Amino acid sequence: MVPYNVGSDEQVSINQMIDIIEEIADFKTIRIYDTSKPKGVRGRSSNNNLIKEEIGWVPNIKLKEGLKLTYEWIYKEIKEGKNNKSNKFTRA
């Protein structure tokens, strides 16, 4: 048995990811950049080649939609008090 990467193969930068999450959560963050540090990679994506070659799996949900579904599920779970001892979650 081997591990597989499973995710979106859409290339996305950290800033683009933050933009998407802010839109989904209806929340704006304050971005602070440390320009004294190296820039690093321009973006990320999942390399799904192995799982595609071995079992024919390819992503069929776009990144933004997958993040939206995940956010909505987590929000519902917390709001209903599932997996949360204090149920103090409120959305601003």
Give a quick precis of the structure.
With 92 residues, the chain is mainly alpha-helical.
What topology emerges from the helices and strands here?
Elements: H1 14-25, H2 49-55, H3 63-79
Amino-to-carboxy terminus distance: 44 Å
| Tally of alpha and pi helices | 3
Q: Based on the coordinates given, report the CATH architecture.
A: Alpha-Beta Complex
How many β-strand stretches? 0
**Radius of gyration, in angstroms, nearest whole number:** 17 Å
Order of helices and strands: HHH
Give the averaged pLDDT, no decimals.
Answer: 87
Which descriptor suits the 3D outline?
Answer: flat
Low-confidence stretches: none
Main β-sheet, in a few words?
none
Q: How much β-strand is present in the residues?
A: under 5%
Q: Helicity level, as a percent range?
A: 25-40%
What is the count of distinct domains? 1
Note down, in words, how this protein is organized.
This protein is mainly α and 92 residues long. It has a single domain (14-79), classed as UDP-galactose 4-epimerase, domain 1 (Alpha-Beta Complex), CATH 3.90.25. Helix content is 39%, strand content 0%. It has three helices and no strands. It has helices spanning 14-25, 49-55, 63-79. It is flat, with a radius of gyration of 17 Å. The termini are far apart. The mean pLDDT is 87.
